[in-house]
Amino acid sequence: MRVRVSLLQALRKRDMIASVMNRRTALSLFAAHVAASPLMKADVMDQDVNGPINVHEFEEVAKRKLHKLAYDFIAGGVEDERTLRANIEAIGHWDLVPRVMVDVTNVDLSLELFGQKLDSPIIISPTGGKDLVMPGAEEIVAKAALNSKTLLCSATGAKKLLDAGEPLQWWINGIGQPNKAAAVNFAKRTEDGGGKAIVLTVDNAYQSNRDRNNRNRFDYGMMRMGPPKPGEAPRKPINPAKAAMWLPHTPNLTWDYIDWVRSASNLPIILKGILAPEDAELAVQRGASGISVSNHGGRQLDGAIGSLDALPDVVEAVAGRIPVLVDGGLRRGNDILKALALGARAVLVGRAPLWGLGAFGQPGVERVMWMLNAELKLAMALAGQPKLSTITRRLVRKHVA
Ligand SMILES: Cc1cc2nc3c(=O)[nH]c(=O)nc-3n(C[C@H](O)[C@H](O)[C@H](O)COP(=O)(O)O)c2cc1C
Questions:
Q1: Does residue 174 line the site of ligand 1, with CB under 6 A?
Q2: Does ligand 1 lie within 6 Å of residue 74's CB atom?
Q3: Domain boundaries of the chain, sorted by first residue
Q4: Whose CA is nearest to atom 11 of ligand 1?
Q5: Looking at the predicted structure, is the pLDDT value of residue 330 above 50?
Q6: pLDDT exceeds 70 at position 78
Q7: Which among 390, 343, 326, 358 is positioned nearest to 122, based on CA atoms?
Q8: Does the Cβ of 177 fall within 6 Å of ligand 1?
Q9: What are phi and psi of 291, to 5 degrees?
Q10: Which CATH architecture does the domain made up of 42-398 adopt?
């Protein structure tokens, strides 16, 4: 009888334990499910600058936080966005062939470029319209560049820091001036203001045809004023985006511009937006100090070649006479490593820091720049490349489909 009772008790206990276990298991399964759900992931990612684990996730957060007009303005390309995609696809046209048994205890990202000592070959590319993200964004990005020891290329935003004697490394960006007097004035002001190079954007003759902006009834006036605020009365249009609008920017820019600047300043002149090897040759002949292979992040001529597809021919044409830089689609350290292996001395990143800015403001930009540098350093280590100078064309091969 006693045996039967204790057996019964044991069975009940087992059932109780089983039911507790089941509840526990169920609870923990539920918790894991909630944590993995896109909603929870978004919540964690959106609140902490250390939440996103890569540039792609910074973009996800920025997309959730930004006005749709602003997100589309930044993310978008031109027309069917073939070139926007081509930049990403071009990175996939190259495979890394890493070396091993090399001492990579220390990996050094530093370099000298146009006489300037840089901590890293990753430069912040000029991006107009930052105020769509937040007011005062140019200065915020400049502070982030200073804190993350990143060379900044921008049209504005650096003045206060340079006037205060901060060691910000800054290249000015412009689309050129219509005559020699204005170009001379611009060059002198830049030199006096502490700019260390002039980056002339050469692919911006006209406002390009950006379908997303046209569809969103975007107003280019918002690049200064920011997107409409909730509840705000409709604004008077300033410069509304229209399909295939004919809006000249610098239609009369020619190679003479280099002579104009040279007559007034010794600053290096870097031409941003070269894709054809013929133009690379002309740039060298006409006295450019450097060129940047770029299709403006797929934002000017749709159908233009992807940056890493264009880079090898340009590097060959230049044949080491001046430094070649590149931008377009670079989101990972290993993308950048491929660009360097294809002959770029340094790279520029446009959208990546903007995603940091849109997600978390200044700390977001700093985090993105830190992340790209850390990823590049690790990629170099794993590819057996302790210094930038050890990276050669042998590190990449054309991808075989
Ligand atoms: C929102 C935005 C604004 C830009 N504005 C300029 C500009 O004013 N001048 C310029 O030369 N390039 C401009 N660009 C192009 C970038 O400098 C750079 O060439 C391009 O973004 C690189 O591609 P990535 O965004 O894939 O890194 C802009 C790009 C974006 C995304």
A1: no
A2: yes
A3: 2-36, 42-398
A4: 201
A5: yes
A6: yes
A7: 326
A8: no
A9: -135, 155
A10: Alpha-Beta Barrel (3.20)
Confidence of residue 90 (pLDDT cuts 50, 70, 90): very high
184-193, 229-238, 277-286, 373-382: least confident range:
229-238
In the predicted model, is pLDDT for residue 1 greater than 50? no
Least confident of 25-39, 61-75, 370-384: 25-39
Give me ligand 1 centre to Cα 296, in Å.
Answer: 5
316 φψ region: left (φ > 0), alpha (ψ -120 to 50), beta (else):
alpha
Cα-to-centroid distance, 291 and ligand 1 (Å):
15
What is the CA(389)–ligand 1 centre distance, in A? 27
Structure tokens at 12: 């009940």
**Residues 345/113, Cβ–Cβ less than 8 Å:** yes
- Quote the ligand 1 centre to 126 CA distance (angstroms): 6
Is the Cβ atom of 125 under 6 angstroms away from ligand 1?
A: yes
What residues contact residue 53 under an 8 Å CB cut-off, 6+ apart? none
Q: What Cα–Cα distance (Å) separates residue 83 from each residue in 73, 88, 302, 351?
A: 16, 9, 5, 15
Q: ∠ at Cα 144 (61, 355), nearest 5°?
A: 20
Output the residue whose Cα is nearest ligand 1's atom 28: 127
pLDDT of residue 234: 87
What is the per-residue pLDDT across 192-211, written as a single tens digit (0 to 9) for each? Answer: 999 999 999 999 999 999 99
Strand partners, 94: 398
Angle separating helix axes 137-147 and 351-360, nearest 10 degrees: 100
For the chain, how are helix, strand and coil distributed in percent, rounded to 5?
45, 15, 40
Is 76 touching ligand 1 by the criterion CB < 6 Å?
Answer: no
